[in-house]
Amino acid sequence: MAGRIALREFAAGILDVGPGDLTAAYSCPDCGTGPELDHGRPGYRFDGRPVGLGLSLSRSRGWALLAAGSADGPGGAGATVGIDLEHSSGVMFPGFDDVALTPAERQLLAALAPDRAILWRTAAWSRKEALLKARGTGLRIEPASVEAYAEPGEGTILVDLDTAALGLPAGFAGALAVLRPA
User: Fold this and answer.
1) Which domains does the chain have, with CATH numbers?
2) What is the 3-state secondary structure (H, E, C) of 152-178?
3) pLDDT (0 to 100) of residue 13
4) Percent of the chain at pLDDT exceeding 70
5) Helix axes 114-135, 103-110, angle to 10 degrees
6) Is the pTM of this model over 0.85?
7) Under a CB-based contact definition with an 8 Å cutoff, are residues 82 and 132 in contact?
């Protein structure tokens, strides 16, 4: 709940309107868009119209990251954003590598020193989730089919966030993906 409240405050601050003036309008490729949805890509309406922001929210272990980009661009298509925050405790379950990593990523992981492997897994997962959020698919796509460290395609920006500089405790990884139309 706190993450959703923070996202509404964040969007309202960008738009210079009161948070109560915004109506939630989440969108899901399977369910559509509207105030009755409680899942999917976050969005808001002001005076009945979409606000023109692409938004993303990620929560992990009591922390949250928020991202916004302009959803309005040439021809009505702007950038979409995806942000993800992960803690290393979430990637330590048996079978994680098989479910989450591509064969090439498992090969990269095998070459790492054990003390670097946990944070590498965490960063790889964060990059994948940020990309999938920006694409609008989320985890309806098999994460093991997404290359976290491949060269981004044209119009794609993928950035590892400096979680220490953001004031987060050790063990976190964060990533931001921005997709611009071609």
Assistant:
1) 1-51 (no CATH), 54-179 (3.90.470.20)
2) CCCCEEEEEECCCCCCCCCCEEEEEEE
3) 96
4) 95
5) 150
6) yes
7) yes
